[in-house]
Design goal:
alpha/beta, Rossmann fold, eight-stranded mixed beta sheet, 14 helices, binds cytidine-5'-triphosphate
């Protein structure tokens, strides 16, 4: 069984989605995990400790100041005697506490005291999920290394309102737990992959540069997802503010030419996923000195020249990876432009998305993509960039298997 011997501390906080936690406990135990539940006061308004304890076959911890519980296990041991802390459902309130280090009940204290990986499955009303405060807290938690699964888009259980905020389904949470505990399948073991991510910075002079709005989130997530499936991944990243993914070799570059050189130096490889928003042009003759304003003179003209197309270079290279995947950031005719790119760049697959400003995709944490391959197009629903990455990594593993053999 995939989770046998694993100990999961499951924190249930107070949302209607707590009813799904009962099924989640069953699913985790079916796979051999031991589940130790902690419930907030809010959670106990939705499901009873009796039901939770019966399904978990363990004591349910609810009180920070319970002499009995403290003698039995103690909140510090509770926080550490496990392989993973899973928060499902995680309310906006509990995430706000986590992001700020508050510890005023057992759940938040355990979360502050733990040194184990923490996986959070948020569930809340869509307006609460998109509220500025929640956005800030989620960003903070991600920067702190907390992992997320969901929320998904769909109808809310209590209000019928639609939008993003539904807790991920128990089986998806279980799959995410397995990946985090590194117990998932490793279909890419023995494969090498190169991923580009982020923007490039093309210098104008020593202090100025041309850039774009890419955050690197999607590319970094793909590098991590390929590594989670067992691939040996090199990430070539332009300047970004997000951390290097764990378990991946990251090479930092600034300019498109540096990015190309780094990518080519890692060939041969089995897989190339070119996600970077490479600047199409660079300044033809970047100045070695800061360009000064000259009183009474017109602004200096910027002469541009074309950058190397890294995807196209890789797609037509003598050591072309077996699977070459590109991205297409479009603001119109997404599918048509994506198809044209597939052919022009020599890719096997193009992940196309609409980056019109109103979609909030560029720089944001969510994505909605179309997968354009030679044999057809599929539309993926709106999901987090981490989920796009996981699905894409699985698809890559499948395609590679279908083409057979090793590169
Ligand atoms: N790409 C690349 N090197 C470049 C430009 C793009 O490797 N110099 C890659 C990107 O990483 C992405 C794909 O090519 O995988 C699509 O890039 P995009 O800029 O959207 O396409 P272009 O070829 O520039 O086409 P257009 O400007 O018409 O959109």
């Amino acid at each position: 069984m995939m989770l046998s011997g694993k100990r999961i501390l499951l924190i249930i906080s107070g949302g209607i989605a707590a009813y799904k936690s009962l099924d989640l406990i069953r699913r985790l135990r079916e796979r051999g995990a031991a589940v130790r539940p902690v419930m907030t006061a809010g959670a106990q308004q939705f499901v009873t400790p009796l039901a939770v304890g019966a399904l978990a076959a363990d004591h349910v911890f609810t009180e920070i100041f319970s002499r009995e519980d403290e003698q039995d296990v103690g909140h510090i041991r509770l926080a550490r005697d496990c392989d993973l802390v899973l928060v499902a459902p995680a309310t906006a309130d509990l995430m706000a506490k986590m992001a700020n280090g508050l510890a005023d009940d057992l759940a938040s204290t355990v979360l502050l005291a733990t040194d184990r990986p923490v996986l959070v499955a948020p569930a809340m009303n869509p307006v609460m999920w998109s509220a500025a405060a929640t956005r800030r807290n989620v960003e903070q938690l991600k920067a702190d290394g907390i992992r997320f699964i969901g929320p998904a888009a769909g109808e809310m259980a209590e209000s019928g309102e639609a939008g993003v905020g539904r807790m991920a389904e128990p089986l998806d949470i279980v799959a995410s737990v397995e990946r985090l505990l590194d117990n998932g399948p490793k279909p890419l073991a023995g494969r090498t992959a190169i991923v580009t991510s982020g923007p490039t910075h093309e210098p104008i002079d020593p202090v100025r540069y041309i850039a774009n709005r890419s955050s690197g989130r999607q590319g970094h997530a793909i590098a991590a997802a390929l590594a989670a499936l067992g691939a040996d991944v090199t990430l070539v990243s332009g300047p970004v503010t997000i951390p290097d993914p764990a378990g991946v070799t990251t090479i930092h570059v600034e300019r498109a030419e540096e990015m190309r050189d780094a990518v080519i130096s890692r060939l041969p490889a089995d897989i190339a996923v070119m996600v970077a928003a490479v600047a199409d042009w660079r300044v033809a003759a970047a100045s070695g000195q800061k360009i000064k304003k000259q009183p009474g003179e017109a602004p200096p003209p910027l002469m541009l020249t074309e950058n190397p197309d890294i995807l196209k270079t890789v797609g037509h290279h003598g050591q072309r990876p077996r699977l070459v995947v590109g991205f297409a950031a479009e603001t119109q005719s997404v599918e048509e432009n994506g198809r044209a790119k597939l052919t022009r760049k020599g890719a096997d697959m193009i992940v196309a998305n609409d980056v019109s400003p109103e979609t909030g995709i560029m720089g944001g944490t969510r994505n909605r993509v179309k997968i354009i391959a030679r044999d057809g197009v599929s539309d993926w629903p709106d999901m987090g960039k981490d989920e796009v990455a996981e699905k894409l990594a699985l698809l890559i593993a499948e395609k590679l298997k279908a083409t057979g053999g090793k590169a």
